[in-house]
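Lecture 7 notes: from sequence to structure.

We start with a single chain of 423 residues. Read the sequence below before looking at the structure.
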Amino acid sequence: MFSLHTSERKTQSLRGGIIVRVISSFLSLFVLVVACLALSDAFRGVSLDQAGLRSGVAEMLGVRVSETVATLPAAADPKLVRFEWKYGGHTYALDETFYGSHYRFYRSLPTGIPLGDTGAQDRTWWASLDALFLRTIEGDMAISRLAPALRELGQAQKLSDDQLVEFVAAFVQAIPYDQAKTDRREQGLSTDAEKVTYPYEVLYDQKGVCQDKSYLAYRLLQELGYGVAIFLFPDPADNHMAVGVRCPAQYSNYASGYCFLETTGTGNKIGMIPELSAATRVATADIEIGDIKTDQPAGQYQPLGRVEVINAIEGKEYAGIVATIKTRDELERLRTSIAGYRRELKTLGSTVESEESTLEKYRDKLDKLKRQERYEDYNDLVEEYNDLAAKLKKHIAAYNALVTKSNAAIQRYNTLGNGFYAD
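Now the structure, written as tokens:
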């Protein structure tokens, strides 16, 4: 889930107050600087030098400018953070040091940008907002240390390039989802506690919502040389963000050339677009294929809608989607077969039960005829009994054969599914 922090009101005030004419004089420049200072409450506590200040004014006036200058402070107040996650049936742990001084620096950075000329949160606006969080601050080595550390762990397990993408995805997915933040946003709160967080903050706090964790996954994969993009679902009903990783076009999602990577919950496969819990906004790994062992209540999950693919960059491809789709398709076929077996077994089981009940009644009649020594009637009824018993035997054999086929399909489904959905 993402939150919007804009400075639309202040931008409009700027236009109404000073964009009447531009006079190329020292006085004009002075007025612009003063006006920009009046806008400072649109951004949280960022410290800018004069170049950055002029840059901010020019950007609001629609001028293409260089990135705002912000200086990372010296490393102080170290904090050792342990990350734990699962991948491929193994549990991994990684210790990294982060700094309180750097954390406070990122907490002070802006989390919003002015609306453009259209006055709307359009594709261009979102691309600019994403760029704010995806930029690299000079001197911050957190991502450039963490990404190689993850690669070294993967190489020690002889993971392929495709598996490394999944490994990084599992790392980010295992960072706890900040449900309290989502709940506060849905209550209409808009304080510092509900703001979008930079990747450094996510790592330091070890929590985040979809937007926060998507930015982190994007930066890690970018650092490792993979092509990545942002998948934005801007409609209020969705209010979601995910990452795209470069993959073969014919297997990509939304014909984008990128495969969907969900960050909110563990076990979500790359390329499989999940549905979100209506209550928590967390994606479920099981919903795309469905789990024959668990029936989800109707309305518990919601499909994602309109998507915007933004901030796409080229890089290495993830080809693991080919095997994923093959496994997904086999699971789907197995699920369909198992459902069919269940229907057949139910029908055949009812037939067997009915025939067994009828035979029991026949046995009672035969016992009664035998006691009454009505042997002619007894012999006539025995023929009917034997015919029905033969049918029952045939139906029981068919039922047992179907049980064998169904059990084999369920065993295959469970074996394949446990690996497919494993954390």
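Strands lie at 78-87, 90-99, 228-233, 240-246, 258-261, 276-277, 301-302, 308-313. Keep this in mind for problem set 3.
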